[in-house]
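Pasting as-is:
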Amino acid sequence: MSAGRLPRIGIDLGPGPATAVLVGADGRIVARCARPGDPDDPAGTVRELLAGLRPPGGGPLRVVVSCPGPADLLGDPGVLDRVGVLRIGAPATTGVPPLTGWPADLAGAVCGPVAVVGGGYLHDGSEIAPLDTGAIGAFARRCAGPVAAGPVAAGPVAAVAVAAVSGHLDPGHEQRAAALLGAVLGPDVPVVTAHGYGGVGLLERENTAVLDAALARRAGALTGALAAAAGPDAELFLMDGGGHVLGPDVAAAHPVLMVGAPHATARAGTARLTGSPTLVVLDSRPDGLRIGGLDDGLVPDTGTFREVRGIRLAVRTDRVVHLRPDGDAGPAALLERVRAGIVRVGAALGDAPVAVAGTPGPVPLPPEARRPADAEWAAAYGAATAEASATVDRLFRFADGSLAEGVRLARRAARDGAVRAGADPRRVRIGAVREMAMTYVPMPCVRLRVTATGPLVDPAGTGETW
């Protein structure tokens, strides 16, 4: 292995057998390992896979795990903890209360104290109202106090979610509220703020913060177990739903970002195995076939928010067709559905090639689809070779009429975010900036969306270790 590169092990714990690969500095697979997956003990599976792949002599290495996250388990409300929900935006946002539109079973599992207090910002940066610190203090005491019967929920919560109107433009009120809550609730109760999520919709950012808060304990247990399984000499990352890495701290605090990670990782690995950054991927697994695409290495932006059990989240969704075995449909009918799915996913990708990831499953594959070498290891390979990324999606004001300055700020913010996520600052690539006019905002304002991506940086002094 060339000097300056850590050994990289990618692990896929998605549906089907668990797979892992060791990748050399030249990007080629050096060793492989597979075993039956155990969804109830992902850390144990990781430990067993690593036992057969660690380079001789030990030393530092990078381990990247792609697995279903806690947010993939929402069919069972028991996975959710009780949380407090604080919205900062009165008197402007009282018409639609928090948790509106949530399924009754999930809302019942999550709902602790809820409050809408004065504060938040307008698009021009002025306050809707001063931050109501007294109401926040009262809300914090309700979250910390004993369980109370009656119309006003109270009692200990596992975490708190905070969302402010236009918090993505100015996080000041959310940050002040988080500090006030932390002073009352202490360090053992996470406070999840919504300003870091993309998009301009308050409800979507609020829903995402609530779900992250409700899953924080479970996500922390998952990342902690995986870190212990990887060992103290391993630099651990997890995969997100866009096919990029998450640091374990980020994955624990924002488990919603892991939704769809196994399929996204398989797509990324297939793109690298085929050398085609724009393609349609047929991800074949024992539970069915997932059809998704990549556009220049990135998940295509459909312009819509992801929904999990009807809850709109501030996470961009991609066009994925999931086909399962159908006892009433024969192979020919299933194959026609596969071809229709390829057309649907590939419509915005031009004349994109079609490639297969995974092993033959219950859904037939068209014979014209390309099956690259090592296709059965595509998801593990996608994890081992994954990059860091960051997306900026927010409003930029340009009172002086200078749109170019907003574009420059958006590009810089995306680059800085990718570097914080682990990208090598010398090798960050910044994609095209998408502009969306905000005609209903009474000032010069534009919504900009841009993504920056780059390979992970190796720790200083990393040398040839195997």
